[in-house]
């Protein structure tokens, strides 16, 4: 009797299932990490031996003892539900009963136009164009980093955001002030790409289905990242040497340092530029639906948060003290 192949370890099963469903590498790493932490918390018991009580105990521990945010707790819950539903194939009645942590509603940090100008003036040249693009278009950080050459339409003065949050595509404007800087930037990027091709590289990551259908597309200029990394790297999934996009942590650090150098009293992040973009459009008189489309919000209620930012203290009410 032939030996049966060994069944993959649980964490490898999670990775295989995530890749089969074409989830991102980021999601893969996060879900595997949460599964590992869940198992270790329960003294290395197999998840098949556990259920609702153990999941709730783990999530409670995260919130009470580890004091994680609601979004982090919900991320852990999503990872564990994926483990039970997709990997262990356990359709259990308690899966939908595990309570979702409620995120506290916080007002977004918004910079004035002058503060944005000062912040951008403190950014290093290596990050300035990306910072200006995020503010000028309202893109999320990863949406900006994942832009491909063909997504920038200079003839129509617009940018196509592919597979944004929620898997949706959308179009936003291309600021006039960035047309020439972007064209110059892409000329330099193209030189790097041609050098990579000459050295036997030049391939960029593509979604699996697209890569299968067009096996040579990854080396074409139109598919290259607008903001490529300065270094080649080996894809841990495929082992192929490619040039990925810039690491988001670089801009996060640069903006944090720029805010400090500018003497801003507000905590600024790349997402602050998106909040500021939306608020400044509303201040300029653009309607809420237009801003909703540009931001890619599914529900207009999400966009409505910026109307509250526009109100002055006390919801726009003038204090009687100021009337004396």
TrEMBL record:
Keyword Thylakoid: no
Keywords carried by this UniProt record: DNA integration, DNA recombination, DNA-binding
Superkingdom in the source lineage: Bacteria
Cytoplasm is among the record's keywords: no
Membrane-spanning segments: none
Database matches in InterPro entries: CB, DNA_brk_join_enz, Integrase-like_cat_sf, Integrase_catalytic, Integrase_integron-type, Integrase_recombinase_N, Integrase_SAM-like_N, Tyrosine_recombinase_XerCD
Occurrences of domain Core-binding (CB) (ranges): 5-88
Name assigned to this protein: Integrase/recombinase
Family: Belongs to the 'phage' integrase family.
Pfam families referenced in this protein's UniProt entry, alphabetically: Phage_int_SAM_4, Phage_integrase
Gene: int
PANTHER family linked: PHAGE INTEGRASE-RELATED, PROPHAGE INTEGRASE INTD-RELATED
Span of domain Tyr recombinase: 106-319
Organism of provenance: Trichlorobacter ammonificans
Cited PROSITE patterns: CB (PS51900), TYR_RECOMBINASE (PS51898)
């Amino acid at each position: 009797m032939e030996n049966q192949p060994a069944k993959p370890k649980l964490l490898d099963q999670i990775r295989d299932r995530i890749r089969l469903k074409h989830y991102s590498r980021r999601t893969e790493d996060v879900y595997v990490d949460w599964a590992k932490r869940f198992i270790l918390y329960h003294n290395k018991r197999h998840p098949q031996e556990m259920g609702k009580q153990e999941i709730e105990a783990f999530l409670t521990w995260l919130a009470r003892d580890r004091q994680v945010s609601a979004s982090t707790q919900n991320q852990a819950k999503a990872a564990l539900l994926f483990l039970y539903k997709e990997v262990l194939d356990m359709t259990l009645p308690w899966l939908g009963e595990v309570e979702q942590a409620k995120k506290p509603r916080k007002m977004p940090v918004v910079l004035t136009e002058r503060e944005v100008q000062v912040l951008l003036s403190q950014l290093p040249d290596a990050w300035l164009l990306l910072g200006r693009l995020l503010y000028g278009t309202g893109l999320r950080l990863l949406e900006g980093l994942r832009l491909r050459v063909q997504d920038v339409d200079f003839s129509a003065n617009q940018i196509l955001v592919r597979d944004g949050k929620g898997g949706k595509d959308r179009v936003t404007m291309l600021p006039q002030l960035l047309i020439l800087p972007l064209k110059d930037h892409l000329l330099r990027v193209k030189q790097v790409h041609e050098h990579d091709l000459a050295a036997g590289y030049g391939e960029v990551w593509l979604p699996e289905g697209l890569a299968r259908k067009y096996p040579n597309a990854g080396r074409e200029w139109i598919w290259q990242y607008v903001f490529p990394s300065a270094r080649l790297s080996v894809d841990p999934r495929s082992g192929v040497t490619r040039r990925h996009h810039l690491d988001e942590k670089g801009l996060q650090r640069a903006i944090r340092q720029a805010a400090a150098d500018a003497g801003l009293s507000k905590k600024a992040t790349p997402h602050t530029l998106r909040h500021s973009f939306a608020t400044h459009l509303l201040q300029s008189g653009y309607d809420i639906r237009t801003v909703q489309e540009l931001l890619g919000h599914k529900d207009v209620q999400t966009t409505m948060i910026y109307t509250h930012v526009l109100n002055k203290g006390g919801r726009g009410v003038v204090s009687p003290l100021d009337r004396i």
